[in-house]
Inverse folding.
């Protein structure tokens, strides 16, 4: 079974080919056009997807070394995401499946982030989670603890009530003038800083839910006060600020995840989404694995932020399950896992 995956939910145009669960290619074209606006501009994103989609698919097929006639089905991200961006991938999938007379498979973008853990690098790759496992999904738009029961059955047991972890990284980075998206920059600077230098407020919320808007505000007010007495406070303390901020975000994430794992008596724990690229969070997973005997699953960097390989692998499992969709399918901007 050979699946072509298409991802176009936000600002990355991506196509990937997966054969029997093994990755053959994963081409990602990121859109630099948004950097100067400090965030993704939906109208520009959909226009860039239109320009990129055909060359990206072409490259994915070429790198996989296959002809389009060898593809069994085309899987695409139906949502959640930006409607104009999703429309480009959905429309492309419709045209492609009609032309080749092959089925279409809709994929939930959030499920795809979780299922990225099942992508095999080669036929002998057996490093995959066993069910049930917990997945911490941390991205630009989501922060959730997901109980994964099967390839198709997932339950959100905790989630953010306001900002996502990625948003907390990005918004605080913006305040420090570190550009967009700031998450990777904070990660890099944090390596040179002292995480114990500053403390920021942590939320007190019942259950397994998260909140990051209070941290953002506390960070902002702290800087505002310090800048009054020293206009170069940020410049002088960038590394310590990043290290302390990153530590606070990671502590918040790991605290709830640990509680959920303990209560549900689950020792197999994965992390997914763009923020799972963060080196501090990866180290925290290693530490919890050593301390509590967790079996952990950390994705390859290429599968952390948006990519079509995760869409193709999701499509593969749906294909095996006979889950196809009709040609009248429309994308949806908002949808749960
Ligand atoms: P969603 O999947 O919820 O729709 P999205 O697709 O926009 O959101 P991703 O592409 O999965 O999100 O992740 C992007 C986020 O990951 C950004 O907020 C970015 O700052 C963050 N990020 C990427 N690398 C790092 C890193 N090394 N450290 C911290 N954050 C990071
Ligand atoms: Fe995403």
């Amino acid at each position: 079974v050979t699946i072509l995956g298409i991802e176009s939910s936000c600002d990355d145009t991506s196509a990937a080919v997966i054969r029997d669960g093994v990755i053959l290619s994963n081409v990602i074209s990121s859109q630099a056009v948004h950097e100067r606006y400090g965030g993704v501009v939906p109208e520009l994103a959909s226009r860039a997807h239109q320009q990129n989609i055909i060359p990206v698919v072409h490259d994915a097929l070429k790198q996989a070394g296959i002809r389009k006639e060898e593809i069994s089905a085309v899987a695409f991200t139906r949502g959640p995401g930006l409607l104009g961006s999703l429309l480009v991938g959905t429309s492309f999938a419709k045209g492609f499946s009609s032309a080749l007379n092959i089925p279409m498979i809709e994929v939930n973008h959030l499920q795809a982030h979780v299922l990225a853990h099942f992508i095999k690098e080669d036929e002998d790759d057996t490093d995959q989670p066993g069910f049930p496992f917990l997945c911490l999904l941390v991205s630009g738009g989501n922060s959730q603890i997901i109980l994964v029961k099967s390839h198709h059955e997932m339950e959100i047991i905790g989630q953010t009530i306001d900002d996502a972890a990625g948003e907390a990284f990005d918004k605080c980075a913006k305040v420090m003038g570190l550009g967009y998206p700031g998450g990777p920059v904070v990660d890099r600077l944090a390596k040179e800083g002292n995480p114990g230098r500053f403390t920021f407020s942590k939320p007190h919320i019942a259950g397994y839910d998260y909140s990051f808007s209070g941290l953002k505000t506390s960070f902002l007010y702290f800087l505002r006060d310090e800048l009054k007495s020293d206009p170069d406070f940020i410049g002088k303390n960038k590394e310590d600020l990043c290290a302390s901020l990153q530590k606070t975000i990671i502590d918040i994430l790991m605290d709830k995840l640990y509680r959920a794992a303990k209560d549900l008596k689950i020792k197999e724990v994965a992390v997914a989404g763009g923020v799972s690229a963060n080196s501090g969070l990866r180290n925290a997973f290693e530490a919890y694995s050593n301390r509590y005997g967790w079996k952990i699953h950390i994705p390859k960097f290429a599968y952390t932020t948006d990519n079509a390989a995760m869409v193709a692998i999701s499509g593969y499992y749906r294909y095996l399950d006979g889950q196809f969709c009709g040609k009248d399918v429309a994308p949806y901007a908002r949808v749960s896992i």
Q: What stands out?
A: The chain has a mean pLDDT of 96. DSSP finds nine helices and ten strands in the chain. The pocket of fe (iii) ion (ligand 2) is lined by residues 109, 113, 139, 306 (CB under 6 Å).
